[in-house]
Amino acid sequence: MKFLFRRRHVHDVQAEAANDQRLHRALGPVNLTALGIGAVIGAGIFVLTGQAAAKYAGPAIVYSFLLAGLACAFAGLCYAEFAAMMPMSGSAYSYAYATLGEFIAWIIGWDLILEYMFAASTVAVGWSGYVVSFLKDLHIVIPAAFTGAPYNHVAPADAGWNIWRLFTEGWTHTGAVLNVPAMVIVGLITILLVLGIKESATFNNLIVAVKLLVILIFIAVGLAYLNRHNWVPFLPPAEGPGTFGWGGVLRAAGVIFFAYIGFDAVSTAAQEAKNPQRDMPIGILCSLAICTILYIVVALVLTGIVKYTQLNVPDPIAVAIDSLGRGVAWLRLIVKIGAIAGLSSVILVMMLGQPRIFYSMSKDGLLPPVFSQVHSRFRTPWLATVLTGSVATLMAGLFPIGLLGELVSIGTLLAFLIVCVGIFVLRFTQPEIHRPFRTPLFWLVCPLGAFFCAWLMYGLPRDTWARLFIWLFIGLVIYFGYSHRHSRLAKHPANP
Asked: pTM value?
């Protein structure tokens, strides 16, 4: 069992981060903050806010955002310490490898694959919904068979914890063939990411500016049309486990937690930051603060404009604007353009993060060397990017946004929980390490971060847990079949 918990020494990780110059260091604090905002302000604000309000929490979705934001604040402080101390592209995977051992690192790395790949697919489905609606306004109609997921899934109510039934039963064919627009956007983003990090960051900065402007316009106009009766009852009475009431608030917080994974994506770009020790904490914490405020304000305005029961649609903000009448019809097109641009940047950042997880795991020997190949001209992990894009394209074409989003949320929460535990452990096991950024009150922040993440995971549906268990089982087969024998630490053990 000893090899399961072999660790990379933090000093070795720091030395490798300083010496590995294969990736292009082109990102400053503004770029990193924009990457975080680019990932956080997207499907959560344009799609999941309305759906979670309609299905789980009503106007009390505001409480869900506060709860998810609080959990993220604790996790974000822990991420900031790790990112400044070990500026590696592997994010939580690299942090776990230096604190909790190889086996836990593999689990979190495998979990991050679930997070990023499914996140890109989830957002692509939301992007497709807004593009189809936008084109319809221009009298361009794409046949429904090519704009939706061919499969949907509703878990059997009587399945309990029967993982086999939860996973295999409840699938239905919708009549659609493929979600073609979702597949197209993932393919285009993949090509852009292969071409270079600087080009990708510049594209993201432009899109972030557009969508922030659109969101501020929506808030300004929406405030003039608020109807307080739409907030009554603010917390709808419970209708069953996880449906309205405080149980619904918890369920919604777990689902919309998907929206907050942007600052994790910032940490995956650490090896492409100019001054990661200073800039990574700035990018992580600033993007988290800005986005939390925007989410809460938009949720209040959205549920104040239109009754929450009408928001279970792919484009809830567009529905809210339609309810205001013809006087603000001009805002509909502007919001849809902002949503399309915003969701594009989320896909870009998610697709940027995944290949860099592959890159780090491959360099450590846990994945085949092909995943760490860097293009000689573009200086990007191009083969890993193409693989990620291909799988994400397929997922976006086949599955609905609700199913994909819940899988991303549970993967993200598990990653954040391990990061919080890792900081706590490292403070006691290696207190002498230089920390450019230190998590304040770590003895309180780390346990609270881990607790909130575990609590939100508990609120997610059983079928989501079942899929996580199956995903982790597949990961264990790969680890024991390949990774532990090819690990660099198996050949060159690190100093304890």
From this structure: 0.76
